[in-house]
Design goal:
heterodimer; A: about 650 residues; alpha+beta; 19 helices; B: about 210 residues; 7-stranded mixed beta sheet; 6 helices
């Protein structure tokens, strides 16, 4: 006996220890957010970061209430209170907090999953009763304690806690009362009728017993008599009906809550990509199960929203090749002196064969002569083989469409798409510009702008005149490498024939600024590049540009994707162009003092995936970047 | 003081043309073409420096409503409004049969354009005297005075100008406002000032014009 008790205690202790929230999350979730309270708390240095978590507030609101009853605003808990004060809710801050969506049909909503250090403290923070006593149902079962309501439900199973916020559905109506007097059921009417007859008889007898009465007074008194027990019984019957209806309605939610706090055999922890992400222990991340996400009905171009009848879909009997094992994640880590955002896209080995060719190119060095290296404020460089990338997307999306469930009549759609696509000239589409380009900002230029004003003669008669003035605009240049020169010339000649473009030179056209395009756009076809810019001087008064700094050159040539902003130069330019005396703006001054360069680059794709990294550098490398960013936001709010 | 590059930003031109002793035309033009690139950018925002930025639809709507309000004022006719959203030039013109109608028209149009409850109360902006014409100072409790308390809004007005031209059938003898000018043909008076000064110095627009 003692051995059995000891075994039970040890098992229970082991269960509590082993309760890992990841084990409860199904592998089929389309997306998952997660962050670590303990890591963020340590790095924020007691500054409040809760305001940036408002995106997780998925509160559902009803728009009307016939009874003007405040019960519908009664909620079990406020999710933002939980997220902003997790320790007071008894959460285990050393475990991650997870947010994902429900996949169950008819039960759309957001699920919050977390580990509890003190389940009793958590339960004590819940609102367990409302004005409408049926609104929250508490159930204590062997598999957990559940608080169920129409909007927010809570489940506790050992040290695992979960909150589910149901998305409001217009058709969720049954709980609403159409009238304040629904206890007027047939039994009430019948009892009241009998009672009225009794009262009428008694009144008749009274009036006819020979005594003098004031008829109006007596009749009024008679009308006011009521048997409160009839109403009491009617209300009890009505409450019982409402309770049964509520229990019936909450059955589905109950079932969902029970599944949420139950260990999943196929849980997300078994996904190797997710496990790898978790092992890196980022401060926060979002993980998307791309295949699950894309297979949702809203993304299926063949789904039938117009019909409410169940539609028999035809499913593919082939095996996935390109569209299997795809997932994406973004993670952020706040380190001293920088914040790092990592991005990863995982795929099958079959995809790698395509991407190896698509990314097997270097940036075109000849584009660099169009960029002014000395005044370079920021740039974005992309170098891919457009033809190879197009081939990949053709096969990828064809397979994607093949696997979407579709009706019989849609089976020919894919064949139609393939036929149409095969008739297109791929050489023009994907090799006119070969996929290599650089977009750069090279300072703030004085751009001439025409405006209307008035002159007055000696008699003050007004005449309208057009004058010019200089305005500051960021000088932008997009240089794109040409693949097929003949096609490029053909397309450019067609563009020249549009009346919106004015001819500046033989190979330069311009679109002057108007309401929709607030800058002059110059398009030029050079021997080796197509140039788009708002700086006409590039062609009117061309000068030889200075070379890029070696670090920028190395960065551009070393990656298929490279992005960089020299923050000092950018902020100085913005300040000088738009904010005279901007030092008085505390948030701007803070940005100038703290912000370092921002950069992003990719890594060569490998067999399993393609990754990229963005780094937000700060000038102070001794303080944590989260703390500094929060101080900058605080300065902004103080503006 | 922070000054944004909306300086030299826009001009307001007001013209009162008398056809005879009492009747005439009124035209007011808001010309923002100098700042059209900034305005295009601003109109993509919801607010800027705490100031709500109206969209094209809102501006158009407001002007249409003001036009309708003006049409209902007795003594006001031929109300026209032009809107140029490329150069951001907006013009409102109407005819008036008396200076009283002119005052009522302007007050009604201003009242319609403001969300404030206490608007310019029956203010007399222009006065026709026996041998002259007066433009009154801005009342202390006017919308403009309240507007002057918003520092951010004031900063946006730096460089903006206000031009007022009155044309008469009678020759002008004297003007009380030293900053105003009499035309060469003596039939017109013009005053051009910085808009921000007009707001901060309420007496700046006051002018008593006497005819010969």
């Amino acid at each position: 006996m003692k051995k059995n008790i000891l075994l039970a205690i040890l098992s229970w202790a082991y269960l509590l220890q082993a309760q890992n929230p990841v084990d409860y999350i199904p592998e089929s979730v389309p997306y998952l957010f997660s962050f670590s309270f303990s890591q963020l708390n340590a790095k924020s240095n007691e500054m409040d970061y809760g305001q940036f978590l408002n995106a997780f507030n998925k509160r559902s609101r009803y728009s009307y209430d016939y009874d003007n009853n405040s019960s519908y605003s009664c909620e079990i808990l406020e999710i933002m209170d939980l997220i902003k004060h997790p320790d007071s809710f008894g959460l285990d801050l050393n475990e991650r907090f997870y947010v994902y969506s429900s996949n169950v049909i008819g039960m759309n909503g957001t699920i919050y999953l977390f580990k509890l250090k003190n389940p009793a403290a958590f339960e004590s923070k819940l609102t367990t009763e409302c004005l409408d006593k049926f609104y929250i149902q508490k159930r204590s079962l062997s598999n957990g304690t559940f608080y169920i309501s129409g909007k927010i439900s809570v489940a506790i199973n050992g040290n695992i806690g979960s909150v589910f916020i149901k998305k409001h559905n217009y058709y969720d109506y049954s709980e609403q009362r159409t009238s304040a007097f629904e206890y007027y059921d047939s039994a009430y009417i019948s009892e009241k009728s009998i009672y009225n007859k009794q009262v009428d008889s008694a009144f008749y007898e009274k009036l006819n017993n020979g005594k003098e009465y004031n008829y109006e007074e007596e009749a009024s008194a008679m009308r006011e008599t009521t048997d409160s027990s009839i109403i009491k019984r009617a209300i009890e019957r009505d409450e019982q009906r409402r309770l049964e209806a509520t229990l019936e309605k909450y059955k589905e939610i109950q079932s969902l809550m029970e599944s949420i706090v139950q260990i999943q055999v196929n849980n997300i922890g078994k996904n190797r990509n997710f496990s790898k992400l978790l092992s890196e222990s980022p401060d926060a991340f979002v993980f998307t199960n791309s295949l699950v996400l894309l297979n949702q009905e809203m993304f299926n171009p063949f789904s039938s929203y117009s019909s409410r009848k169940k539609v028999d879909y035809v499913l593919s009997n082939q095996s996935r090749v390109l569209t299997k094992d795809i997932s994406t994640y973004y993670s952020i880590n706040f380190e001293n002196g920088k914040a790092i955002v990592n991005f990863a896209n995982t795929y099958s080995e079959s995809v790698f064969k395509y991407l190896k060719k698509a990314y097997g190119v270097k940036q075109d060095k000849s584009l660099l002569k169009y960029i002014d290296g000395d005044n370079l404020i920021g740039y974005m460089s992309i170098a891919i083989n457009a033809k190879e990338m197009a081939k990949f997307y053709e096969d990828f999306y064809t397979e994607m469409l093949e696997f979407y469930p579709k009706r019989e009549r849609d089976l020919n759609t894919i064949s139609g798409i393939k036929l149409f696509y095969s008739l297109m000239d791929k050489e023009v589409l994907f090799n006119t510009l070969d996929g290599r380009m650089i977009l750069a900002c090279t300072g703030f230029a004085d751009i001439k702008m025409k405006y209307t004003t008035y002159n007055y003669d000696d008699d003050f008669e007004r005449t309208e005149v057009t004058e010019e003035r200089f305005v500051k605009q960021p000088r932008m240049v997009l240089a794109a490498s040409i693949g097929n020169k003949e096609n490029a010339q053909k397309i450019f000649n067609i563009l020249k024939s549009f009346t919106v473009f004015k001819h500046v030179k033989e190979n330069v056209i311009t679109l002057y600024a108007d309401r929709d395009v607030p800058f002059n756009l110059y398009i030029a076809l050079m021997d080796d590049a197509l140039i788009l810019t708002n700086d006409g001087n590039m062609f009117m008064n061309p000068i030889k540009n200075s070379k890029l700094k070696s670090e920028d050159l190395k960065y551009i040539m070393g990656h298929n994707f490279a992005f960089k902003i020299h923050s000092d130069k950018m902020l100085e330019g913005v300040r000088d162009s738009y904010f005279k005396g901007a030092e008085e703006l505390p948030w701007f001054a803070k940005m100038m003092a703290e912000l370092g360069n921002i950069q992003m680059h990719d890594n060569k794709p490998d067999k399993n995936g393609y990754t990229a990294t963005a780094i937000f550098n700060l000038k102070d490398s001794s303080s944590n970047s989260l703390y500094i960013l929060l101080k900058m936001m605080q300065a902004k709010n103080g503006f | 003081m922070i000054s944004l590059s909306l300086s030299s930003c826009f001009e307001i031109v007001e013209e009162v043309n008398f056809k005879d002793e009492t009747k005439g035309n009124y035209q007011i033009t808001l010309n923002c073409s100098q700042s059209k690139d900034r305005i295009r950018g601003l109109m993509k925002l919801d607010t800027f420096m705490g100031i709500k930025i109206p969209g094209t639809y809102e501006i158009s709507n407001q002007l249409s409503e003001s036009t309708e309000v003006l049409r209902k004022v007795p003594g006001i006719s031929n109300v026209k409004c032009t809107k140029d959203f490329n150069s951001y030039i907006f013009t409102m013109t109407f005819s008036f049969d008396s200076v009283e109608a002119l005052n009522k028209g302007i007050v009604a149009a201003l009242a319609n354009s403001s969300s404030e409850k206490h608007l310019i109360p029956n203010t007399t902006i222009f006065v026709k005297t026996e041998n002259g014409f007066e433009r009154q100072a801005i009342p202390a409790d006017s919308i403009i005075k309240r507007f002057s308390k918003n520092k951010n809004a004031l900063n946006l007005l730096k460089g903006a100008s206000f031009t007022s031209i009155f044309r008469f059938k009678s020759a002008v003898k004297t003007v009380s406002n030293a900053k105003s000018k009499i035309a060469k043909n003596t039939l017109a008076v013009m005053l051009k000032e910085e808009l921000i000064d007009c707001i901060l110095q309420t007496q700046l627009l006051y002018n008593r014009i006497l005819f010969k």
